[in-house]
Amino acid sequence: MKKVPRILGLIIASIVAGIFLAFSVGGIFENNSNPFTFEDIGIVALAILTTVSAIFAWFKVKIGAWMMLVSGLLFAIFALLTAGGNRIIAMIPAGGALLSSLLLLWGMQLERKG
After folding, report:
1. What total of structural domains would you count in the chain?
2. What are the CA-CA distances from residue 22 to residues 4, 27, 32, 47, 87 (Å)?
3. Looking at residue 34, what is its pLDDT?
4. d(CA 89, CA 111)
5. What domain range includes position 100?
6. Better-scored residue on pLDDT, 31 or 48
7. CA 44, chain centre distance (Å)
């Protein structure tokens, strides 16, 4: 039972990273001639950070969990600053990253207590 939060956190982190990967692949094949905006660059950078954090979480749980927490916080701040009227929808990626990081940290704490 002590590994359940950690495993659930890894699953959620992987799902969030998979969604970002799917959007990235879709964006590559979309024929868009518009130049990148600040918002586009920020989303791409945060998506890469979140994906790298999820990969780290599978191999180095402590580093990955803290990276995922930072990524989620940065995504939340970025969403609040750039989303306009759709702040709740823009916070969804941050929520997944924050939830997975908290589950990973909680799971590490439970395993440490033995």
Report:
1. 1
2. 27, 9, 17, 11, 22
3. 72
4. 34
5. 4-113
6. 48
7. 12
